[in-house]
Write a structure and sequence with these properties.
Elements (H helix, E strand, L loop, with lengths): L2 E7 L5 E7 L2 H11 L6 E3 L11 E7 L2 H11 L5 E5 L1 H15 L18 H13 L1 E4 L7 H14 L7 E5 L2 H14 L7 E2 L17 E5 H6 L7 H4 L4 E5 L10 H10 L4 E5 L12 H7 L7 H8 E5 L6 E6 L4 H7 L4 E2 L3 H4 L6 E6 L5 H14 L14 H11 L3 E10 L5 E10 L3 H13 L4 E5 L2 H13 L4 E4 L14 H12 L5 E5 H4 L10 E4 L6 H5 L15 E6 L5 H20 L3 H4 L7
Parallel strand pairs: 1-5, 6-11, 6-14, 7-9, 7-10, 8-9, 10-11, 15-22, 18-20, 18-21, 19-20, 21-22
Antiparallel strand pairs: 1-2, 2-4, 3-4, 12-13, 16-17
Length: about 600
């Protein structure tokens, strides 16, 4: 006899009550399989810890992932007959229709008359409005900000409260973009307030709730230590995380801050073109913020959906992506909540990207110094399982600097987290800089065409700027704040904004950016070429700089992407690591083109 598992809503419709019939072995089998679902399931047991006889054996929260997983776990072919009862069947039918059917179009007059969104932006804003909580995973440059604003306004017009609203961004330059877009696309909303400075707590004294706060992840983590802290205590009705890959480390304070800020919101949006920056675990914090009842812990998600393999030494377990046999169920659980477009599908008018690689040669004397330093700094290059002599990020950053330019290196001995004394390397770049020299040759071939230059290191950016200015080029800087090497005006937030505006207006020949300051959230479409002196090891900062140029507003007939890869150095390893990470992101966004087209397919 096949065991039967039935499910019905409880009295208030918040939980699924599960009942089973069958012999005791069947009941133990059902109880064990229920524990493999990602939603928390409470199995009813007797005082001795045994599953009770036939009847109500478990309860779980009513969520869409719960019913999807119940159907897949106990459907035909699993030795158990799954029979949802009438009220639960009705809820499942309504929820499936809501997630599958084309959402209602945006209301007429939702945009100011002088602004016309693209068709895909209207469709995706309507989808976000219908979902209420979702991820906007569009390629960079497709207007996720506009889509989010229109979707939120559609929810307001449908009767959902949207204020107070908290928008979390990577930096204040991106905050300015949100501010200008809200003022343009939603003039009926209150003017956004930048949540920063010593007077941030003033918001607690506001007697109304119709306000919008824009803040950075750095500030959010200061004001979100627990549920009663400043930002979580505001009980935001709408919470938006821009560049949401920045919450991908679930152990980080800014990720925990986002969980608290979004916990009570009726509308939650998480926007990123590169949600995975390391491996598939990066998506878990975003899932939890969307639906904590369905995705309560990584320990429940990992065994059900995540593929792993043992490292070569047998000690570490490396994440390789989603389990292929569980992808169908995983994406069924998220139906309607993952909204994505690729540029190739909606902006055919954009020019093609043309990739090339230049390989500067390191002078022989510095080659010997580099190889010695590489040997001393690394126990092994990172592939997830090796043990570094110092932190992975620090050693890779310094080696990348040494692959770009001559440097003075000071070594000090410092205690690591285990109390062991290890060498710490202080690198100061100086001339000659073979990447800057190679760049000048490249710029000379372009005959004055505007170019955006990207580095990971601020030191390299400023040194490169010296070379360019000495060659008579007009340069602007979008880097971290601080002094310049040559004693020129320091880089400030105000100077970054001015540099971007001057470049777009044709007043500069070259704009020099670090990936952290200029790689996300801004537009540099006057440039028809990106010179990548360094790419970040992080997938988002490694790839998104290209899309500052290749986006709506680009008028050139093609966009050149040129990587400067010093021969026989860690630069090449960086490209291999980015491909490995991109494979998992391509699986999550379900677009094989992402990996195939990465870095132009060049080695």
């Amino acid at each position: 006899m096949t065991a039967v598992l039935t499910g019905e809503l409880n009295a208030d419709g918040s939980q699924i009550v599960l009942a089973a019939s069958g012999d005791i072995n069947d009941l133990h089998m059902i109880a064990g399989r229920l524990q493999l679902l990602t939603p928390q399931v409470k199995v009813v047991k007797d005082a001795a810890g045994n599953v009770l006889g036939s009847g109500n054996i478990a309860v779980t929260a009513l969520t869409w992932p719960a019913v999807v997983q119940l159907g897949r776990s106990f459907g035909n072919g699993y030795g158990t007959c799954w029979r949802p009862q009438s009220r639960l069947r009705g809820w499942m039918a309504d929820e499936a229709a809501r997630r599958v059917m084309t959402p209602p179009p945006l209301p007429d007059g939702i945009c100011p008359p002088h602004l016309i969104p693209r068709d895909y932006q209207r469709e995706d804003a309507a989808a976000f409005a219908a979902a209420g909580k979702g991820m906007l995973l569009h390629d960079p440059g497709l207007g996720k900000t506009v889509i989010a604003i229109l979707g939120i306004e559609a929810r307001r017009r449908a009767g959902t409260g949207i204020f107070p609203m908290i928008i979390v961004v990577p930096n204040w330059d991106v905050a300015d973009v949100w501010d200008s877009h809200i003022r343009a696309w939603a003039p009926g909303w209150p003017a956004p307030v930048m949540h920063k400075g010593a007077n941030r707590a003033r918001v607690r004294r506001w007697t109304h709730r119709r306000y919008i706060l824009i803040t950075t992840y750095a500030t959010a983590r200061l004001d979100s230590r627990d549920d009663s802290a400043l930002l979580p205590g505001l009980r935001a009705a709408t919470a938006i995380a821009d560049e949401a890959h920045m919450i991908g480390n679930g152990d980080s304070q800014q990720s925990k801050a986002w969980q608290l800020i979004s916990a009570h919101a009726l509308t939650v949006g998480e926007a990123s073109g590169t949600m995975i920056t390391h491996n598939a675990k990066n998506i878990y914090p975003a899932l939890k913020a969307l639906d904590k009842k369905s995705w309560p812990s990584w320990e429940r998600v990992r065994p059900r959906y995540i593929a792993t393999r043992r490292s070569d030494d047998g000690y570490a377990e490396n994440i390789t992506g989603l389990r292929p046999e569980m992808q169908g169920e995983f994406f069924a659980c998220l139906k309607g909540q993952l909204i994505r477009r690729a540029k190739a599908d909606v902006l055919p008018e954009l020019p093609p990207k043309i990739y090339s690689v230049r390989r500067p040669e390191m002078p022989p004397g510095w080659r010997r110094a580099y190889e010695t330093m590489e040997h001393d700094m690394l126990a092994a290059l990172p592939d997830g399982g090796e043990l570094p002599v110092m932190s992975i990020l620090a050693q890779l950053t310094r080696l990348s600097q040494l692959a770009s330019s001559a440097a003075d290196v000071e070594v000090t001995m410092e205690l690591n987290d285990l109390g062991i004394e290890v060498p710490h390397y202080h690198v100061t770049l100086r001339r000659p800089c073979w990447k800057a020299e190679s760049l000048l040759g490249y710029l000379g071939e372009r005959e004055g065409l505007p170019t955006a230059v990207f580095t990971e290191s601020r030191q390299l950016a400023m040194l490169t700027g010296e070379y360019c200015e000495e060659a008579g080029l007009r340069c602007g800087y979008i880097t971290g704040e601080g002094p310049r090497r040559d004693g020129g005006p320091p880089v400030t937030r105000k100077s970054r904004v001015q540099a971007r505006e001057d470049f777009q207006a044709g007043k500069l020949d070259v704009i020099i950016c670090t990936a952290g300051a200029g790689g996300v959230g801004i537009t540099l479409t006057r440039a028809s070429a990106a010179a990548m002196l360094q790419r970040s090891w992080q997938l988002d900062l490694g790839l998104q700089p290209e899309d500052r140029l290749h986006r709506i507003g680009q008028l050139a007939d093609h966009v050149e992407i040129t990587d400067f890869v010093t021969q026989h150095t860690i630069d090449q390893r960086r490209r291999e690591v980015l491909r490995d990470k991109a494979g998992q992101l391509g699986q999550f966004i379900r677009d094989p083109r992402f990996v195939r087209e990465l870095l132009g397919g060049l080695k």
